[in-house]
Write a structure and sequence with these properties.
Layout lengths: L6 H15 L14 E3 L5 E3 L2 H15 L12 E3 H8 L3 H9 L13 E3 H28 L14
Antiparallel strand pairs: 1-2, 3-4
Helix pairs in contact: 1-2, 3-4
């Protein structure tokens, strides 16, 4: 859960992680600095880029007042947990499962959904929404209902 009062320390950490991350993806040129985790006893360990990005993303979300959950992709969810992640009702999720949109297993009476399958569905849905929006925009342009470019037209 997000902290009730993130305070200045979280903001400092989030902004520092963002600032440090700006040059990390560039493999060309001189060696770049690496992130290091220092324990309370002074032990230091270099952080891989993947873990650094997880920390950076988590800090930004917490700073924005949102909760962060870190789960393995092979985690199995109940239908209610899966519905909550998608922001839909449980009956809507069950319809998606029964329509074959999202794979599931049913070891007993209850359906279970893999987190990886849920994430794959979210990605497919996002791609589909973007494609439909582009198609709607093209249709509106063809019908003269939508203009790209041309700049601002004052109405008053």
């Amino acid at each position: 859960l997000p902290p009730t009062d993130p305070g200045d320390r979280l903001a400092v950490v989030a902004h520092a992680l963002d600032a440090m991350g700006k040059g990390r993806a560039d493999d060309a040129g001189p060696p770049r600095p690496v992130a290091v985790l220092v324990g309370p006893d002074g032990d230091r360990i270099e952080l891989p880029d993947e873990l650094y990005e997880v920390l950076r993303h988590a800090a930004r979300q917490l700073l924005g007042g949102r909760g962060v959950t870190i789960s393995p992709h092979d985690q199995v969810l109940t239908t209610q947990e899966a519905a909550d992640m998608l922001g839909v009702s449980r009956p809507t999720l069950v319809k998606l499962l029964e329509d074959g949109e999202i794979p599931y297993s049913q070891p007993g009476r209850h359906r279970r959904v893999k987190l990886a399958d849920l994430a794959a569905y979210q990605e497919r849905a996002k791609v589909r929404r973007r494609s439909l929006l582009r198609e709607m925009t093209r249709d509106a342009e063809a019908d003269g209902l939508y203009e790209t470019g041309g700049g601002f037209v004052p109405t008053r």
